[in-house]
Structure formats: C-alpha cells, structure tokens
Design a protein that fits this description.
Blueprint (H helix, E strand, L loop, with lengths): L15 H14 L10 E6 L2 E6 L12 E2 L4 E2 L5 H10 L8 E3 L12 E2 L22 E4 L16 E7 L10 E9 L2 E4 L5 E2 L4 E2 L1 E7 L5 E2 L4 E9 H5 L16 E5 L4 H4 L3 E4 L8 E8 L11 E10 L5 E5 L10 E4 L20 E5 L2 E3 L6 E4 L4 H9 L4 H4 L5
Parallel strand pairs: 3-9, 4-23, 17-22
Antiparallel strand pairs: 1-2, 2-15, 5-17, 6-14, 7-19, 8-9, 8-13, 9-10, 10-16, 11-12, 13-15, 15-16, 18-19, 18-21, 19-20, 20-24, 21-22, 23-24
Length: 396
C-alpha cells in the first residue's frame, strides 16, 4: 500500500464564510447524498463546484489500479475538413493569460515502492492513424537514462483514486496529472467526478515522477477538489454528452507543497495558438496500453482547434486509457540560450494548455482531444470563489 506523507505543509486558509458557503450549498442542492460518507463538504458557487475532502489520508493501491477509461467518441472523424476549416478561420480563444512554472530543487526524498498498475489492453506505436495526423509516441526515458526525476518530466505523475463503489472491491482507478503550482495539480474532470451525476470520486493520491512501481518523491493526498458546475451537473455544452466537452478540467490541492522540490509547469489559457488555431504540443501520461502504465510516455504532435467539437484541441497520439488528465505542453524542454536569434510569438516555456480528455471508439484514428484552457475553466478553478489559490494561497 502506498505510504502517505505524514506532514501537511499546505496552508488551510478557508474562512468561516467558506465553511458556511459549503454547508449552505450542500444543504440547498442536496448533493451530500451523492457522496460517500467520508467525502466531505461540497460548495457550489459562481459556476464552480468544490469538494473539501474529509478523509484525505485514505489509501488506494497502485498495484490494483486500472486505467480509467478514456471517454470515447463515436462521432465520425473528418480530420481533413476540420483542419481546412481551422486554417481558414481565426481561433476564438477568449481572454488570454497564465503563469510561469518552476523547476524546483530536485532534491529526492526517500523513494516509496507502490507497485505497478494492473495490466490493460496493449497498443502498438504508429506514426499516424487513419486520420493521417502525424505524431511520435515513445517512452519518456532515453536509451541510457531515466528522465522521470529530471525537470520538466518530474512535475508530472500518476493519480490514483476510487471511482464509485470501486475501492470496496479492491479495484481503484488511475489517471495522469501534473503540478501547475507548488501544491496544486491539474487533471481531467472525469478523473474527479462522474459527469452529470453530481458525484465526486474519492481518495485521490498523487505520485510525482512515478516510474516502474516507485514513487521517488513520495505519495501525497488531496485535500480540495474543484470542477466546473456545468460538468458536475451535466449541463456543459458538449458536442457529445459527457465526452467532448469544453470543461473537462479539474484542479486539486495537495497535502504538500512538493512542487518546491519537483517543480511545476506553467499554464496558459486563451492563447499559444497561431491565428489558424495550430500549436505544437507535447503530451505526457501513463496509458495502460503502453508499457502497462508502468512508465511515463511522451507524445509529440501538432494540435489544431476543432470548433465543431466544443472548441477542443485535437492531436495525433497513440495514448489510451490511463493518459486521461495528462498535460498537453507547449514549448516543452530546456530553453536554449539565444545567439543571434529571437524567440517566436509564444515563447512561454513548459506551459500546459490543456489535458487529455477523450479519444475515439475506433482505434484507427489515433487521435485525442482536450478541453481548451480558458478563463472560464482553469483560471476560475484557481482564482475564482471558490478557487484553489483563493482559499489556499500558500499552495500557489
């Protein structure tokens, strides 16, 4: 079983007003009945639904965790027409903004052996699928060196949790996630809640830089979880109900500021794309179909905005279930020192612009989609009321 950090250097800044809001919202909406007994209090305000976790020291097992199913779309894909439309139009991304990341100190703690995930269906790398969308998917390691404890890779990790009724049966689930503040992670909303059912999952644990059964920096619980209310209650404007949505994004406050050690990614909303809605994207995650989810995988592809699919970003990829919630990163890697050269129009380094949200029912297309980061989702989840950084500024 994973060992949870016993020190909690996160900053509990929730006021009595916040607690009153949680009690009032829970009673008024009747949402408490949808939760397990140890789930905690729910607050619902300003388009955001937040869960204050009561039992954040509860255990989940990596060894019994299976990759949560990547939401699958049965909408016929017409990539050529979608790309032509994207190139001929100007992307409507709304207000833009974000913040930079940090590489942390890199000091390793005592590694914790947590086991390896349960095996899932296999997969074979391809450089493009039937949608003719080029990509490269490979293990994040180099041939002679593991990269999981180097920045920026180490700011990503494995996220285990209990889906409804799963943990009593000994079978919990896992997603991928990444740090965007010193003590805050971002994942997909479908790794936090059951779309349209007004139900949160439970017992989240984050394993930064997880590799081959070992959590080199430890295991950390989750104290506070936020998703957009429209996703929570099923009113999000999805192109396909519960699958292709504009707000499949969740923010979680950890019981540690481990980002001071492993670092964290920057994030950006409403920008980073060309005027035609294109962006070069690096995707990280732990798909169950590649190396049985034991190692971090990396995928590189160009992404484009598909306005007919809830404005989602589409990339070519061979990742499947388990990669859900993994970061989509612009300008990934160690920045170069410029000599007689200039930066491009969007030089922000190691900046997350979305997370893995869904794939296709058929395995042939080899594409995935991500809800776009916007002021309405990522920024409001961090700095709205309620918001991760609003109530826990020390974690940000």
């Amino acid at each position: 079983m994973p060992k949870t950090s016993k020190s909690f250097p996160f900053h509990r800044r929730a006021s009595s007003a916040m607690l009153a809001l949680a009690v009032t919202a829970t009673a008024g909406a009747g949402l408490a009945n949808a939760q397990t007994a140890d789930a905690g209090a729910i607050a619902n305000a300003n388009g955001v639904t937040a869960l204050t976790v009561r039992n954040f020291a509860g255990s989940t097992s990596v060894a019994s965790a299976k990759p949560i199913g990547l939401p699958l779309s049965n909408i016929p894909a017409n990539t050529i027409q979608a790309e032509i439309k994207a190139l001929l139009s100007t992307a409507a991304l709304g207000p833009s903004g974000g913040s930079a990341g940090s590489q942390g100190t890199g000091a390793q703690m005592s590694p914790v052996f947590v086991g390896t995930p349960a095996a899932e269906e296999g997969g074979s790398p391809q450089d493009f699928g039937t949608n003719n969308h080029p990509f490269t998917t490979a293990r994040a390691d180099l041939f002679t060196e593991n990269t999981n404890t180097t920045y920026p890779y180490r700011a990503a990790g494995l996220l285990t949790f209990c889906t409804l009724g799963s943990c009593p049966n000994g079978n919990n689930a896992y997603c991928s996630a990444s740090l965007i503040k010193r003590g805050v992670i971002v994942a997909a909303a479908h790794c936090a809640a059951n779309y349209g059912k007004s139900q949160f999952y439970s017992n989240w644990k984050f394993y930064p830089a997880y590799r081959g059964g070992v959590a080199p920096y430890g295991v950390f619980g989750v104290y506070y979880v936020l998703v957009k209310t429209a996703y929570y209650n099923g009113t999000d404007s999805c192109a396909q109900y519960g699958v292709i949505c504009p707000d499949d994004v969740s923010v979680m406050v950890l019981t540690s500021d481990i980002g001071n050690t492993v670092g964290w990614f920057g994030y950006w909303y409403g920008g980073g794309f060309t005027s035609g809605g294109l962006e070069q994207i690096t995707q990280l995650g732990y798909p169950g179909g590649l190396d049985s989810g034991q190692y971090m995988e990396r995928n590189d592809s160009y992404g484009y905005i598909n306005s007919s699919l809830s404005g989602n970003t589409i990339i070519g990829t061979n990742m499947n279930g388990g990669s859900s919630g993994g970061p989509w990163i612009a300008n990934f890697g160690l920045p170069s020192a410029l000599t007689g050269e200039t930066n491009g129009s969007f030089p922000q380094q190691n900046t997350i612009i979305g997370v893995t949200s869904w794939g296709y029912t058929a395995t042939g297309p080899k594409e995935a989609g991500a809800s776009p980061f916007t002021a309405n989702n990522i920024q409001s989840l961090l700095y709205g009321t309620p918001g991760a950084c609003t109530y826990y500024p020390g974690n940000c």
